[in-house]
Amino acid sequence: MEINWQAPPATAVRPGKRRGGPFAEIAAALRAKPGDWAIVSQSPDVKTNEAARNLANRIERGLAKAFAVEDESGSFEAMSEGTTVWARFVANLGDDEYDEGDED
Predict the structure, then answer these.
(1) What span, in angstroms and rounded, lies between the C-alpha atoms of 96 and 104?
(2) Do the beta carbons of residue 76 and residue 67 sit within 8 Å?
(3) pTM
(4) Is 50 helix (H, G, I), strand (E, B) or coil?
(5) Strand pairing partners for 27?
(6) Over its length of 104 residues, how does the chain's per-residue pLDDT go in tens digits?
(7) In the chain, what are the helix, strand and coil shares in percent, each to the nearest 5?
(8) Which residues contact 71 (CB under 8 A, 6 or more apart)?
C-alpha cells in the first residue's frame, strides 16, 4: 500500500473543532455596535423554536465559538421568539449601563 503524504488545506477543520463559522461576521459586527440588537438567525436557518432557543442559549453562554468572550470586554445577550434569534454585544463600561428599552 502506498501512502499519499499531503497536508490538509487551510480550510479543513478537525472534528469537534470549528472556526467562527457563519456567525463570525455577525459577532464581529455586533462587537462594533455594542448595545444594538440584530437578528442573528431566522427561518429557514433555524427550523424549530427549540433550535432557536438552543442557539440563543449557546450565544449567551459563549458556547457558539464566534460569540465566546475571552477577556473582560463585555458579553453577548441573546433571545428568541419562534424561529428568530436576536443578539447584542454589551460592552463592559464600568458603571454605564444600556437602556433595556433602547432600540436605535
Answers:
(1) 17
(2) yes
(3) 0.68
(4) helix
(5) none
(6) 788 888 777 776 666 555 556 788 899 999 999 999 999 987 677 889 999 999 999 999 998 888 988 888 899 999 999 999 999 999 987 655 555 555 55
(7) 25, 20, 55
(8) none
